[in-house]
């Protein structure tokens, strides 16, 4: 990856991860749990959310992570229901950022057309376009029902209690399934996760930005 490209996607990555984790912390706080606030995570300061290794991995292999927001279910008013909303808050925040990015692209194209690729305006549009795709990819990836992703907790909040044993299975073996899918994609060139994620990224990119 060229240094220029790396610098242009660094800000969208930081914003995407920061808003994702802040949304988790904010919704947890609104539902009665101040654990994240007491841990200094109820903030838009990216340094409080970034995991150094997880951030580096994003740029190296296009898969990474931030520090998980601590949540204490015992402080929640309705733990099962509240955890659903806390978990959904991160992906929803990324969808909102994706929508904002798409609207900005539409405004630029409507008033000035497609700018020159290597002009200042062109570089800014490229950065916003990367923000669109990064946020959409992060949102869709995180709603997959595989632990420890947000989607597993959303699924737990939606399913009746009689499916608790199946949720336990996903919680126990989900990380191994996820790592296995990532390794399989890296070594075979066939990304099962990519096949699941990118059709939705393309759909929402077209819907939000017309591209």
What is the topology?
Blueprint: H1 3-30, H2 35-38, H3 52-61, H4 79-112, H5 120-142, H6 150-158, H7 164-188, H8 192-209
Explain how this protein is built.
The chain has 211 residues and is mostly helical. The chain has one domain (3-209). The protein is 72% helix and 0% strand. It has 8 helices and no strands. The protein has helices at residues 3-30, 35-38, 52-61, 79-112, 120-142, 150-158, 164-188, 192-209. α1 crosses α4 (79-112), α4 crosses α8 and α5 crosses α8. It is globular, with a radius of gyration of 18 Å. The model has no long low-confidence stretch (mean pLDDT 90).
The number of distinct helices, counting runs of at least 4 residues, comes to: 8
CA-CA gap between termini:
23 Å
Question: What percent of residues adopt helix (DSSP H or I)?
Answer: over 70%
Shape: globular
Percentage of residues in strands: under 5%
Number of DSSP strand runs? 0
Give the overall average pLDDT: 90
Using only C-alpha atoms, the radius of gyration works out to 18 Å
When the domains are counted, the total is 1
Unreliable residue stretches? none
Please identify the structural class as seen in this structure: mainly alpha
List SSEs in N-to-C order. HHHHHHHH
Major sheet: none
